[in-house]
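Show me any protein, fold above all:
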Amino acid sequence: MKILKLVMITALFVAMPTWAESLTGPQNNAVRSANLYLSTQGFSRSGLIQQLSSDFGDGYEVADATVAVDSLDVDWNKQAVRSAKQYLNLMGFSCNGLIDQLSSSAGDGYTESQATYGAQQAGAC
């Protein structure tokens, strides 16, 4: 019976993602929150960190939110396309207007390159 328990515990440990072994509890929780956000809408790296660390968001420490987001394998260009399409589904944007919205620190916080890619791929340019 003890061997069976040891095997089950070992199997659980081995099945854990490698990033989970090096993250703290709050960081692992922030990863779970980040994945939930990414499953519902597009986010830039900085926007996701801000959402996770904001008092109006999840309230994680900025350092924990940053480590959590950086532990994920996210294609930020694809996220920019997703955000651009979401904006275009709501209202019309010029190419430059959408790039500005996506790249603004008051907007989505994508890099200029990511915002341009997103706007182009979404058909605004």
Q: What stands out?
A: Helices lie at 2-15, 18-22, 25-40, 45-53, 62-70, 76-90, 95-103, 112-121. The mean pLDDT is 87. The two ends are 65 Å apart (CA to CA).
